[in-house]
Amino acid sequence: MHHPSYRLWDQNDHGRYILITTDGACRNNGRADAVAGCGVYWGHNNNHNRSFQLDDGVIPTSQRAELSAAIYALSKFRNILANGGYKHSGRIDEVVIKTDSAYLVNSMTDWIVKWRNNGYMNARGLPLCNRDLIEELDDLCDEIDELGVQACFWQVPRSSNTDADELARGAIY
Q1: Sign of the CA dihedral 115, 118, 124, 128?
Q2: Taking each helix axis from N to C terminus, what angle separates 162-170 and 62-82, rounded to the nearest 10 degrees?
């Protein structure tokens, strides 16, 4: 895979796009009894909207929930695109993950290139935290790029992410 660089989304510089809002939430974050949820919001009454608990065999964290929500969203988008979806609406140039997670956005637009180049180790030379999810998200973005669509990431304030936040919180409360 050639691993493109992903970019921050600029509202003023884009072509045709699909916007998917994602969020992760974690009750008791960092503790053994933590419970994490993911929210993926495609739009009002959209049948792709999803709320689910994170259960990947690893102690859940808010960061894992944020990454997992984006993975779910982009997996669904890739499958729709690969099966000929969106052709009726013309060419889609970008899929935009809208999130309030600086960690997710920075991971995929800034840190990912360095991580790839140093074998997914952090700055201290230790294995990258959440490496499994980071690599999965990187590969998904690459697959989407090969289908002719660029993955972009857009960080918004928490107050602009309420739809996905409600779905994520609904999975754990």
Answers
A1: positive
A2: 110
pLDDT, tens digit, for every residue of 138-161?
999 999 999 999 999 999 999 999
* Domain residue ranges of the chain, discontinuous segments joined by +: 7-170
Per the prediction, the chain carries an average pLDDT of 90
For residues 47, 145, 67, 120, the Cα torsion angle rounded to the nearest 10 degrees is 160
pTM: 0.91
Distance CA 41, CA 58 (A): 24
3-state secondary structure at position 93 = coil
* Third-level CATH fold of 7-170: Nucleotidyltransferase; domain 5 (3.30.420)
Q: Rounded to the nearest 5 degrees, what angle is found at the Cα of 65, between the Cα atoms of 140 and 15?
A: 45
Q: Phi and psi of 70, rounded to 5°? A: -65, -40
Residues forming beta bridges with residue 152, ordered by sequence position: 7, 96
Tell me if residue 4 falls in helix, strand or coil: coil
For 93, list phi and psi in degrees, rounded to 5. Answer: -95, -30
* R_g of the chain computed on alpha carbons: 16
Q: Residue 15: what residue type?
A: G
**Cβ(157)–Cβ(100) below 8 Å:** yes
